């Protein structure tokens, strides 16, 4: 699969097969963040890997899925849950604003996973105080995002954004995600 095909199919996945992500893939995820570009090469991004079934189960109630969908459609059921989480943490002791560095790390992390067939969901709607305590994250480290991982049990397709769809993703008749994207003409212009 070409990089463009990988980028096109690397969508957000929210239902998963109950199969563990192997350790060599976990090592790839860590490596993908380790070698990410960052401003002044300061490398402020840290990870907390949550990969035992018991620990994963404690994270599940502290994240919120698919705000555009009713919970019965968007929230994974007990046998659809991710099998791995990574907490993405900012080392705030390092100078500068790390927003771009975090974004690049998230992109590398989720693309490295997808290269191994592992789907992901970046999660910002999380109970930060509870997760910070659960994952033993201490100042100056700051929890920014959780990323859920697993082998997807659904597909996700890009569809044209129309007046009818707006930006909201929806499920089709197969319960696959349809993700509207703006046209090339709308997002880019030639001088
Ligand atoms: C910064 C960020 C935060 C997100 N937070 C959540 C979240 O809390 N819960 C969720 O289900 N999806 C979350 N998403 C996934 C987005 O809803 C998803 O990326 C968007 O709908 C576009 O779908 P796509 O990733 O397949 O292109 C988040 C994505 C990003 C980039």
UniProtKB/TrEMBL annotation:
Q: Which Pfam families match?
A: Nitroreductase (PF00881)
GO MF, one term, reads: oxidoreductase activity
Q: Which keywords has UniProt assigned to this entry? A: Oxidoreductase
In this chain the Nitroreductase domain maps to 8-151
Keyword Repeat found: no
- Which family does the similarity line name? Belongs to the nitroreductase family.
Protein name, as recorded: Nitroreductase
Q: Which organism's genome codes for this protein?
A: Faecalibacterium hattorii
């Amino acid at each position: 699969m070409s990089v463009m095909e990988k980028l096109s199919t690397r969508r957000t996945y929210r239902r998963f097969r109950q199969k563990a992500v192997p350790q060599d893939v976990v090592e790839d995820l860590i490596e993908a963040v380790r070698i990410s570009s960052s401003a002044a090469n300061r490398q402020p991004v840290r990870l907390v890997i949550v990969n035992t079934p018991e620990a994963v189960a404690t994270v599940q109630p502290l994240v919120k899925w698919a705000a555009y969908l009713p919970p019965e459609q968007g929230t994974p059921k007990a046998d659809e849950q991710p099998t791995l989480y990574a907490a993405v943490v900012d080392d705030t002791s390092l100078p500068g604003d790390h927003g771009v560095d975090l974004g690049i790390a998230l992109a590398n992390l989720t693309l490295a996973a997808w290269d191994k067939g592992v789907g992901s969901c970046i999660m910002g709607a999380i109970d930060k105080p509870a997760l910070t305590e659960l994952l033993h994250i201490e100042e100056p480290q700051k929890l920014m995002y959780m990323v859920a991982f697993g082998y997807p049990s659904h597909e996700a397709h890009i569809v044209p954004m129309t007046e009818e769809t707006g930006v909201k993703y929806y499920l089709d008749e197969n319960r696959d995600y349809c993700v509207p994207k703006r046209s090339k003409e709308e997002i880019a212009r030639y001088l």
